[in-house]
Write a structure and sequence with these properties.
The structure is a single chain. This protein is mostly beta strands and 172 residues long. Helices cover 0% and strands 55% of the residues. It has no helices and 15 strands. The strands form four sheets. A four-stranded antiparallel beta sheet has the order 4-5-6-7, with no helix packed on it. A four-stranded antiparallel beta sheet has the order 8-9-10-11, with no helix packed on it. The radius of gyration is 16 Å and the shape is globular.
C-alpha cells in the first residue's frame, strides 16, 4: 500500500503508519528487537522482523518472525536468527543465524519464500571465522547477490555474496 509504511516503535511494537497523517493504522506485533530490522515482501503482504526471545545472563537470543500486513498471528520463521531481508523479487528470504552464539550472527541463511512466508528448506553458508560476525543484510536489485557487514568487533568491512554460487564477490 503506497500510503502506508511499517515501523518499529520505541516500545518494540511493529506498526503500520499512514504516511499522509503520520498516525498509526494498526499494531501488527509486539516484542521487536531494540535494533529494528524489518523486511516487507514486495507486494506488501507480509512483514518479517527479529525479536529478542530469552535473555540468560550475558546472552540475548533472537528469532526471525513474520506476520501478515493486515494482521494475524506472529509466526516464528527461525530461532537464533537476526536481520531478515526479503529479495526484491519476493522469492527468497535471507537472514543471519547466530546458532547458539548469543546475538553474534555467524551464518547466512537463504530460504525460498512461499505465499505464507518461507518454506522450511533453504541454503545456509558459514561465512565467518570464529570470533567474527555478520550484520545488516541488503539484497542487490537482481535478487541474486547479498551485501552484509562482516567484522570481528574491532574492524568491519562490507562484503557481497552470490547466493547462486555461494561465492564471496567482494571485500570492500
Amino acid at each position: 500500500v503506497p500510503d502506508r509504511v511499517v515501523a518499529v516503535t520505541e516500545d518494540g511494537r511493529v506498526v503500520v503508519l499512514d504516511t499522509t497523517s503520520g498516525r498509526e493504522v494498526r499494531t501488527l506485533a509486539t516484542g521487536a528487537s531494540a535494533v529494528p530490522s524489518i523486511a516487507v515482501t514486495p507486494d506488501g503482504s507480509r512483514v518479517f522482523f527479529h525479536r529478542a526471545t530469552t535473555q540468560p545472563p550475558g546472552c540475548e537470543t533472537h528469532e526471525v518472525v513474520s506476520v501478515a500486513n493486515d494482521g494475524g498471528p506472529v509466526e516464528v520463521v527461525a530461532a537464533d536468527a537476526l536481520y531478515p531481508a526479503v529479495s526484491p523479487d519476493g522469492e527468497m528470504l535471507a537472514f543471519l543465524s547466530s546458532a547458539g552464539r548469543c546475538a553474534e550472527a555467524s551464518s547466512l541463511v537463504v530460504q525460498a519464500a512461499d505465499q505464507d512466508g518461507v518454506e522450511s528448506s533453504g541454503r545456509s553458508w558459514a561465512v565467518t571465522e570464529p570470533n567474527q560476525s555478520l550484520a545488516l543484510l541488503s539484497w542487490a536489485p537482481d535478487s541474486r547477490n547479498l551485501a552484509f557487514v562482516f567484522g570481528d568487533g574491532n574492524t568491519s568491512s562490507t562484503q557481497e555474496f552470490d547466493t547462486a554460487t555461494a561465492a564471496s564477490l567482494s571485500d570492500a
